[in-house]
Amino acid sequence: MPTYEYRRPDGTTFEIMQKMSDPSLETDPDTGVPVERVFHAPAVHFKGKGFYNTDYGTKRRQREMESSAKEGADKNDKKVKDKAEAKSSSSDSTSSGGSSDSGSSSSTKDAKPAATKPAKKD
Fold this sequence. Notes:
- Strand 1 (3-7) and strand 2 form a beta hairpin.
- This protein is rod-shaped.
- The chain is 39% helix and 10% strand.
- It has two domains: 1-40; 43-91.
- The relative contact order is 0.07.
- By secondary structure, it is an alpha+beta fold.
- The longest helix has 42 residues, at 59-100.
């Protein structure tokens, strides 16, 4: 048997078990004051093709998405910055390393020139 919730005029609520075929209460059985039935939104979860778990938002998931978006942007900025620093430091060491190495013939053979990448063909 389903449980129905009713509200009194003072705002307090109570629950009562009734048959679905029974008419809704008009007065509180204990006090006799008029009451109205309280309706709640049903818990609906659509399943099947085209519906995703992320379509059903929660406060927790919203906080997680905001934090991951913020962290993701921060991480991406850090990666870009690290790559730029690594590239600039490697180009500095290559240019200074090549000019300071004047007597060794074996290191000259092993060192690759800076512009050895082939051009991309479309």
